[in-house]
Every structure is written in C-alpha cells, then in structure tokens.
Predict the structure.
Amino acid sequence: MSRRCEICGKGTVSGNKVSKAYNHTRRLWKPNLVKVKTILNGSTVTIKMCTRCLRSGYVVKKV
C-alpha cells in the first residue's frame, strides 16, 4: 500500500529536520490521504486521495 494520491500523484517526501543547534536528522513528510468512496464510470470505487484534491472538487464524494 503506497502513500500516494491516486489523483495528483502526491507522495512521501524526505528531507532533514534541523534543530536550533543546527543538527540534521532525516525525516519524512507524508501526504494527508483519505479513503473516499466515489462513482467512476458508473461503479462505486474506493480511492486514496489527498485532502487538497478532495477540497478542490476533482472527485465528488459518495454520501
């Protein structure tokens, strides 16, 4: 199960956490993914998408 948005492709990004003493430690930034039931091509499908795509209205959430 990959941490990737199925709409825009946003995924995990790595980088450094930098302390006040300028020590560097590796860390991860994970996207805010939600599982959403939606209708695609006439059938109900569950997709993982980021909340930015959900807010933008790319897919309509099935209620």
In short: The helical segments are 51-56.
